[in-house]
Fold these 3 entries.
Entry 1:
Amino acid sequence: DIQMTQSPSSVSASVGDRVTITCRASQGISSWLAWYQQKPGKAPKLLIYAASSLQSGVPSRFSGSGSGTDFTLTISSLQPEDFATYYCQQANSFPRTFGGGTKVEIK
Amino acid sequence: EVQLVESGGGLVQPGGSLRLSCAASGFTFSSYEMNWVRQAPGKGLEWVSYISSSGSTIYYADSVKGRFTISRDNAKNSLYLQMNSLRAEDTAVYYCARDRMVRGVFEPGADYWGQGTLVTVSS
């Protein structure tokens, strides 16, 4: 199985900050990666698909990059509604494993 | 409007069974691959199972293999998860999620999720 390791597990940031979250796969997955945002009590929301493509309706301050084993989700200017937990998920092979999550908290 | 609505969750004793349903609307259900994903209280997301659009290809997480069965009825626009031999560690919110597909081709990501249904396994 492919293991997905996210870092950091949590980050404290202020409105307007640039935030970067990293996801590393235990083996190469090309661009078969998605990023999700989840708020408490809500279902996950797709932000980025195929490693770097912005899902329709998602603000352009979110961006994804990487291929192979190393991936990054960047929020260019953190907004109040962005405080949430973020997950990466590989879709290269089954089981489609998720990273452990990164909680973005208010500083 | 795309909608996925799960139902069937509840309290069940260890060793018991439960069948979850996911009613789909607002899109051509038979054209989409579907998944079940779960989240234990206070924990992260765990992918559980996948089924192809026709139902001919199925995968499971090792943690549920042999105990859970995914199925679909394209005529009824519905996805199911039959859960047998339930354990305390199966306690979670269960989500159904639609694979993102463009012109029949999967693009890595699940673009629509239901609101989730809570399954509690306890005596």
Entry 2:
Amino acid sequence: SQTIHQWPATLVQPVGSPLSLECTVEGTSNPNLYWYRQAAGRGLQLLFYSVGIGQISSEVPQNLSASRPQDRQFILSSKKLLLSDSGFYLCAWSPRGGAYNSPLHFGNGTRLTVT
Amino acid sequence: GIQVEQSPPDLILQEGANSTLRCNFSDSVNNLQWFHQNPWGQLINLFYIPSGTKQNGRLSATTVATERYSLLYISSSQTTDSGVYFCAASMNTGFQKLVFGTGTRLLVSP
């Protein structure tokens, strides 16, 4: 069966510090990968998605970037965190074969607080 | 882009009661999913249901694509059903980019 791992679970970082959140998927090949952010406990916003190694699409301009160095690895980064980057970050995957109609599965999320 | 609206925003039930959650979307969709977020933040996929009806235990969902709405039914609710229920949809063209509604927060009391 497929599983998705995301770490760390919680993170407190000072303003201006760098960020690296990692997500890996097991039990499948060539997944579509996604980073979402949830603010204030409601509403998920799609930040990035990737259909393959090195292929990243950004949905909103922001202080963050994403990379996919391996097929089942997705990384969310920032060079300098802002207070507004605080939130709950969720990685997700869906099967490659059905880009238009595939169930989406989430990791357990990382709660980021920028102080 | 597509708009997704959910109602009601908040719902309080006694254990054992039934409920219906609604999701309206503004455009034709080829992807409609329901999720449950538990109090610890974990998001679980409940249904992938762009049309028709599906059932899984005490939960069922119906999507009427031509009328642009979906319903999630919870029967004989339990305290473990508490949390936030999200509907998400994406349009008929382009890569799957699910747009989420703002959710229905459900509290089931014993």
Entry 3:
Amino acid sequence: AQRVTQPEKLLSVFKGAPVELKCNYSYSGSPELFWYVQYSRQRLQLLLRHISRESIKGFTADLNKGETSFHLKKPFAQEEDSAMYYCALSGLSGNTPLVFGKGTRLSVIA
Amino acid sequence: ETGVTQTPRHLVMGMTNKKSLKCEQHLGHNAMYWYKQSAKKPLELMFVYSLEERVENNSVPSRFSPECPNSSHLFLHLHTLQPEDSALYLCASSQVVVDSPLHFGNGTRLTVT
């Protein structure tokens, strides 16, 4: 069964400090991993996906199949990064919907 | 507005009422989803429609009834709900292809009294 674990409900960091939001997954096949973000009073939106190997708003995430992890990282946090972050998992099948973790609320303190 | 639109934004209903949530997408997608976000649980997938056919129903109670008349519209009909059904109901859409991300609406905040 697909499962996504985000162990931290809340993460508070100071502005300019490094950020790492943890995500671990369980999936028997080849996974597709995503990070979604929900800023205050805005809709949930895609932040990045592992297959693109891109950096969005300074965030990166590397899929580690050995550790079954997909942690989200940013070297220097900004106040505007404060939001709810969801890690999500899908399979290779086009009909496989996403399974979300419980989410981590990131609070960046000035 | 482009993207995924949900109406109403807020809904308060009694346990004996019948109401419907509406979702519309203008992205040309061919798959649509209903998710439930409760305060104490992760996002839960309720229904998936792919090419207008229901392909997944994660054991949702029959008091929730989805309808997908075409690829752009999705409804969730509600009747005889329970207070524990109070939650944020999110609609999403995507293409039915590998690595197609979901595009979410803003959700409908439902309160059952």
